[in-house]
Amino acid sequence: MEQQKKTLKLNVKRTFFIGLAFCAILLLWRVHLTQTPLLLRQLLIDQYDYQEGAYFGIIGIVMSIDNLFAMLLLPLFGILSDRTKNRLGKRMTFIVVGAILSALFFPLMAGMFLVSRVAWFIVMLALMKVAMNLWRGPAVALMPDITPKPLRPKANAIINFVGYIGAIIGGGLVMIMPFVLDTPDTFVTGTIPYYITSVIMVAVVVILLFGFKENKVLAEMKPDMEYGEELSETQAKVVADKPLSRKDKKNLLIVMGAVFMAWFAFNAIDTFGSNFEQDRWNPTRDPNFTPYWGMLGIALAVAALIAFLPCIKLTRKIGRKNSVLLGAGIVLFSLTLGAVMSIFITSMAPLIPIFAMSGIGWAMVNISAFPIVVEMASLKNIAKLTGIYYVATQSAQFLTSIAAGLLMWAFNDVWTHFFWWYGVFFMIIAFIMVFFFKPRKIEFTEGQTVTSEPLDVDEPLNKVKPVATE
Fold first, then answer.
1. b/e per residue, 85-97, with b = 16+ CB within 10 A?
2. How far is CA 94 from CA 16, 102, 209, 228, 384, in A?
3. Rg (CA), the chain
4. Rounded to two decimals, what is the model's pTM?
5. HSE (CB half, 13 Å, CA atoms) of 183?
6. Residue 435: strand, helix, or coil
7. N or C: which end of the chain has fewer CB within 10 A?
8. Nearest to residue 226, comparing CAs of 3, 4, 458, 468?
9. Can you give the residue range of the structural domain that contains 184?
10. What are residue 4's DSSP bridge partners?
């Protein structure tokens, strides 16, 4: 068979540029996850005089609306995106429309809070989350669309690096303009981050619209993308419109299960952390109380930001599976340490370095988990697999918000004592599941010539071992 020789190298500048979409997404999520549960809790107390603790179940259900919509809409919009063809681009069409709608509904949530309209607040929340699901999957699929499979962990690290800048900006906004329960003076201040976020989101859309020509880039990258398919870590060749091999299906289920459990653990803490802080250390609602939950989010994001790029080399050395294992282990250790420390400390401040440690672990998980999943996609269904990946994360967040909220309601008097251990338990399950994942090993070094023989459609990839040469 004729030999194929090609050099694959990542376009770092372009990868950084398309990461702006992920930056806007994480900016909105950080503001939303920190402020919205507090705003909703205040509305429920003011309008309906909910007894202490009863609102946790309501907050959990309302905050999980996004995750319910995501389970239904992300795969749908992913499939539609894969099949879209127009001058703007199959991904950019969804990015532009979805981001603009998100930028409209997000500040309207804050407006409904200020005029004390609980029902309309929830309606705006639901519309915002539908809009986010319209463009979130296509925005994430843009990276694997134009990045050959062996280069995706590096590209994903860069995308996350840019994205976490948005998370840091969001954390900074809620620190500068916090919302403190039962303190009317902070009500207006605490809603300002919603408006700033929307302005930044619109700016990102404008930059992408005029600075990234999707169809042109796809045409340029087509030869590299087709060759990248030959260097997949899947056990058998992935072919469009054909099912995965039995081993690859098993691997996909294992990865999805581990991702599900990791998000099940982590999102419960993220969703209820600001409420936990208020109930544990500010039960009297002292207006002079300094909330640190936003600072914890910044610490996690900054640590992840710093870790993303250095972790590229480590991931190459130890492999994607071991990268996920090590990252999940670090997160598990930090959550356990936080659970123990929270028994003795008197504020969230001492947990800042613990969350920074968790951010490093989370970075390692994110670098490799998503590329592992889209490794099993063909060039024609990347957004579909991206949607399925997010079904795992969003269904976990949907279920854990409800489960944790109901548990906190049922055990209101002691919920602050088991808050952390909930996350620890499910992170242990995620960690164990990763051990059962079995990837195919590939020898690949960016910028070097990779030599391999062409593969037949039905020929298992593990019969051919690409060799890196100078």
1. eeebbbbbbbbbb
2. 20, 12, 12, 26, 14
3. 22
4. 0.76
5. 19
6. coil
7. C
8. 4
9. 4-469
10. 452
Q: How many CA atoms lie within 13 A of 105 on its CB side?
A: 20
Please check whether residue 38 is in contact with residue 179, taking contact to mean a CB–CB distance below 8 angstroms.
yes
- DSSP state letter for 150: G
Cross-strand bridge partners of residue 56 = none
Q: Are 365 and 262 in contact (CB under 8 A)?
A: yes
What is the pLDDT, as a whole number, of residue 243?
A: 66
Two tokens at 74?
A: 């992300």
9 burial level (CB within 10 Å; 0-12, 13-18, 19+): exposed
pLDDT in tens, 359-403: 999 889 988 888 888 888 777 778 778 878 888 887 887 788 778
Q: In this structure, are residues 191 and 121 in contact, taking their beta carbons and an 8 Å threshold?
A: no
Largest CA-CA distance found in the chain, in angstroms, rounded: 76
Contacts of 92 by beta carbon, 8 Å cutoff, 6+ apart: 208, 209, 212, 214
pLDDT for 407-435, tens place per residue? 877 776 666 667 788 889 999 999 999 99
Q: At residue 2, does pLDDT exceed 80? A: no
Q: How far is CA 71 from CA 78, 274, 391, in A?
A: 12, 26, 5
Task: Decide which of 1 and 179 is more confident.
Answer: 179
Q: Which position has the token pair 């019969």?
A: 463
Paired tokens of 350: 């001492």
CA dist 229 → 126, 138, 212, 346, 448 (Å): 39, 20, 24, 54, 17
Domain count, the chain: 1
